[in-house]
Structures are given as structure tokens and as C-alpha cells.
Write a structure and sequence with these properties.
Length: 378
């Protein structure tokens, strides 16, 4: 071969694609005409572009390594016009007919940023009535040094001289179908159509930097575990100072020591002695609205529920609130003093309950018994 492309880029013949790309970028920064306008340097710049165009394309690289001419598509041992002439570039031919290789114009350096999500822990009272919280978010923001342009102050992006701003380069190859023109992203500007000779030192040409911000979030009344609040435009700024994505705040509700939430209703259990259940009483309860008294009526049985209306969680959509449901659990004394036992015996005698017969009902079936009866058609 007249030209050793590996030597032009200064890499070994077994160099990886990453090593080839790094070598090209290093030489391109040194020999770019905007940096070094010397005519000899410009010729050298064209040589490294040609070498990179061949070695960065797996098919051209294979043709070159086999001793063929990668610029014509003819591999070693293949005759012109035959199946050996460019048959390895069949994908290029299909790309030329269906337009899959060309992106039709330069890519924009400005793109929308990604969405972000943060978890926020709140208490039950805050979920019930709503609140306002301040949160700290680490996201990408527009670089203040270059205002998102990516170029150092006093400089700007320049039109790529390889693709003349089109973002793509064309190549004519020979195949069994004849001459075919294919288009690929420009290797010098990566398809942008422009190059940044002097990147911004603050953001390294990305147009954005990481920063911590403090945001105020309004939490509406009625939110629950997993509720997501969308803050439009508060996510990450895109590359090139592009529009920011959205920030989602996911609510996590802390456990309450007294109440258990089920939907918009609250549940709790109060334990009272059997004398209070028989005679009735009033039990103080600290609700979300303050101290209230729960009225235990005489004759209340264990397992009964007492609803307190409009004492639950505010409905997220629509007015009103859920209920606070108090479950009553009646305890029976396990040990009695002699005087207490005497009083209980007298009470049982007065009520005719010295030898109660009891009322028997069918026992409640377990899960496996119910499944068995269902299969047996009972």
C-alpha cells in the first residue's frame, strides 16, 4: 500500500476502535486549520481524515487489511464488477437505496434533558391536610460561563470544513449493481455540521454543569404512598443548553404511631375493660384535628367499630374527608382479687349466669377447607 493509515494515526495494527478514535481526535486538535493554518499542516490534516475514515469503518478496514483499495470497494483477489468487488459493502448498498445510513442534515447540539425523580418523606398529618416543602436537587443546569453554547468565551462553533456544515459525507463505491453513493455522519464533526475549536473550560463543551438547587414543592391534601407530583421544566437541562426535562417528586408517607391508613379512612384500636364496655364510658383520643372523646355506649361488644365522620384524610379529588374508625377491643381480667371474685359471682347470680348453657354456631372454616369444599361442589 502507498499509505500506511495506521502509521498516519500513530497506532498499532491491532488497535481498538476507541484507540483509533482517540488518536484521531488528538491529531485533529493539533492539526486543525483553525489552529494551525500552515499549508503543509492542512495536507497532513487531510491525511489523518482519510486514514480515520478507512480505519473507523469495519468494512473498509477489513478491505484495507486484506490488501485491497478501500476507496474503490475492491478487495484483494476480487475482480472489477464481480461479486468480490465491494460485496462486503452490501449493507452500504442497501443503505443507499433505503436511506438508512444518512441522517439527512446535521444533528442539533441542543437536545431536551432527561426527567428526574426524587423521593420525599412526609408525615400522615401533612398528607391529610397538605403542606409546602423545600427540597434540594442535584441536576444539570445551563453552564454560566458559555450560556450553553459549549464554546469558550470569545469563541464560537465553526462550520466543519470536511462536510461543509451538512453533517454527513458522501462516498461512491462500486458494487455488482454498479456505482452506488452512500452518506454517513461526518467523522470530524460527529454529524453536527460544526466543530468547537476551543471548548468551554467550565463544562468541557457540554453546555451544562452539575449544580445543587433548592425548590419549593406544594404537596396537595390527600396524597398517598407512590403519588408523584410533576414539576415541569425542573429536571436536567439538555446537552447544548437544551430545554430541561421534568422533575417528579414521589411521596412516601411515614408510619403513624396510632393510626393506620386505608385509602382515605383511618383506623385505630382502643382497648377497654369489660366493666367499661358493660357500663359505657368516654375515652379521650388525639385525632388529627385535636383531642376528642370517643363515646363507648353501654353494652359495647369486643370487635365493634365506632366511626368518626370527617376525621380521616382529605379526598385528593373532590371535597370532604374520610372517616376515623375506632375498633373496640374488650379485655377480660385474667386474675381477680377475692373481693372482686365475690362481686362477680354475685353479679352472675343476679343475671342468672351461674351455669350458662352457651350458644353454639358453626365454626368458621379455614382457607384450605373452603377451597376443598369449592372443588367438591359443596
Amino acid at each position: 500500500m502507498a499509505t500506511d493509515y495506521y502509521a498516519v494515526l500513530g497506532v498499532q495494527r491491532d488497535a481498538s476502535q476507541d484507540e483509533i478514535k482517540k488518536a484521531f481526535r488528538r491529531l485533529a486538535r493539533e492539526l486543525h486549520p483553525d489552529v494551525n493554518p500552515d499549508p503543509k499542516t492542512q495536507e497532513r490534516f487531510k491525511e489523518i481524515n482519510t486514514a480515520y475514515e478507512v480505519l473507523s469503518d469495519p468494512q473498509k478496514k477489513q478491505v484495507y487489511d486484506l490488501g485491497g483499495d478501500p476507496t474503490s470497494g475492491a478487495a484483494a483477489g476480487g475482480g472489477p464488477g464481480g461479486f468480490g468487488a465491494g460485496f462486503g459493502n452490501f449493507s452500504d448498498i442497501m443503505d443507499a437505496f433505503f436511506g438508512t445510513a444518512s441522517q439527512r442534515g446535521p444533528r442539533s447540539r441542543t437536545r431536551r434533558g432527561q426527567d428526574a425523580m426524587i423521593r420525599l418523606d412526609i408525615d400522615l398529618e401533612e398528607a391529610a391536610f397538605g403542606t409546602t416543602k423545600e427540597i434540594q436537587v442535584d441536576t444539570a443546569v445551563v453552564c454560566g460561563t458559555c450560556s450553553g453554547e459549549g464554546a469558550a468565551p470569545g469563541t464560537s462553533a465553526q462550520t466543519c470544513d470536511m462536510c461543509r456544515g451538512r453533517g454527513e459525507v458522501s462516498q461512491v463505491t462500486r458494487s455488482f449493481l454498479g456505482q452506488v453513493m452512500t452518506s454517513r455522519p461526518c467523522p470530524q464533526c460527529q454529524g453536527f455540521g460544526t466543530v468547537v475549536p476551543t471548548p468551554c473550560p467550565e463544562c468541557a463543551g457540554d453546555g451544562r454543569i452539575r449544580s445543587r438547587r433548592t425548590l419549593t414543592v406544594k404537596i396537595p391534601a390527600g396524597v398517598d404512598n407512590g403519588t408523584r407530583i410533576q414539576l415541569a421544566g425542573e429536571g436536567e437541562v439538555g446537552p447544548g443548553g437544551g430545554p430541561a426535562g421534568d422533575l417528579y417528586v414521589e411521596i412516601h408517607e411515614n408510619a403513624h404511631p396510632t393510626f393506620q391508613r386505608r385509602g382515605d379512612d383511618l383506623h385505630c384500636t382502643v382497648t377497654i375493660p369489660m366493666t367499661a364496655a358493660a357500663l359505657g364510658t368516654k375515652v379521650p383520643l388525639e385525632t388529627l384535628d385535636g383531642m376528642e372523646e370517643v363515646d363507648i355506649r353501654p353494652g359495647t361488644q369486643s370487635g365493634q367499630s365506632i366511626p368518626l365522620h370527617e376525621r380521616g384524610i382529605t379526598h385528593l379529588r373532590g371535597g370532604g374527608r374520610g372517616q376515623l374508625i375506632v375498633h373496640v377491643e374488650v379485655t377480660t381480667p385474667a386474675k381477680l382479687e377475692p373481693e372482686q371474685e365475690e362481686l362477680m359471682r354475685r353479679l352472675a347470680k343476679l343475671r342468672g349466669e351461674e351455669r350458662p348453657q352457651g350458644q353454639f354456631q358453626p365454626g368458621q372454616q379455614g382457607l384450605f377447607s373452603r377451597l376443598k369444599d369449592a372443588f367438591n361442589g359443596r
